[in-house]
Amino acid sequence: MKITTKWNTFKTVIKNFIEEADDLLYFERENLRPDECKLLEKKTVKWAKSVEKYLQNSFDTTQNDFYLGFCAAKAYNSFMKINDANILEKLNRALDELNTKKKTLQYFIELLSISDAIIQPRLIDLETRALYTQNEIKDLILDKLYHLYNHNYYPVHEIIKGNGIKTSKNAVNEILESLETKGYIRIINSRKVLVQLSLRGKVAIENKRNFEPEISDKVIMETQKVEITPKSNGRILKTETIYHYFDRQLAS
After folding, report:
1. What is the CATH number of the domain that holds 192?
2. CA 198 – CA 183 distance, rounded (Å)
3. What is the pLDDT of residues 29-66, one digit of tens each?
4. Arithmetic mean of pLDDT over the chain
5. Is residue 216 situated within a structural domain?
6. Per mean pLDDT, which range of 79-93, 101-115, 195-209 is the poorest?
7. Dist. CA 29–CA 24, nearest whole Å
8. Are 239 and 224 in contact (CB under 8 A)?
């Protein structure tokens, strides 16, 4: 699966959708008339349909993971019965679902931002990635989790696939077991294997980077764009990921 539009354009459009969702979520609901409640509810449905259409048309397959995941995103109370005659209750249910779908979009942007093979396949050598050793796969997993460092857990097999890595699930599980034993990651085994970089893992990555050879000029590496200024004395002052994937594991 590959994105068919420019990554920056895709990001901008999705961020605009997120802002539109916020406008609806923070709309003053108190003292709304019944017809105003119905109108606001219709706007949430229209918003979701617009996002679905955009996700379908932004990848090389309409039935892509992001479109399907967005459609499947439901509010935690979506299966609870409500009184259809209670207009305000129906509106609150619609807004809860809108909020869940908005968080889903934010999660997608994070995952996509570290998925080289999906958003910027021409910037990497996919043949080389397919031949990565266990150590190289381990380093890639840590690097991606470092760029995603927050309170979320991410689907490791999707991260690997989204970066052009071809390896067995058993091999990945061995890598994860090793990293977990060192205290570098936390793992949740649910429908998919979800991982999160620990503080110890973050510190280990930063320490390793501090001992890397000095760089005295602007260099484009496979995994990061390194900017050096005259005052840096060869130290890396700023790193910016050049490329940058998905499951429905969202922050509560």
Report:
1. 1.10.10.10
2. 7
3. 777 888 999 999 999 999 999 999 999 999 999 999 99
4. 83
5. yes
6. 79-93
7. 10
8. yes
Assess if residue 245 is contained within a domain: no
Q: With 90 as the cut, is the pLDDT of residue 191 above it?
A: no
Confirm if 245 and 158 have CB atoms less than 8 A apart: yes
Alpha-helix residue ranges (DSSP H) falling in the chain: 7-25, 34-57, 65-72, 87-112, 116-119, 126-130, 134-147, 156-161, 169-181, 199-210
- The model's pTM: 0.78
Residues 22 and 107 in one domain: yes
Decide the pairing of beta strands 154-155 and 193-197.
Answer: antiparallel
Residue 231: φ, ψ to 5°: -85, -5
Beta bridge partners of 240: 225
Q: At what angle do helices 87-112 and 7-25 cross, to 10 degrees?
A: 160
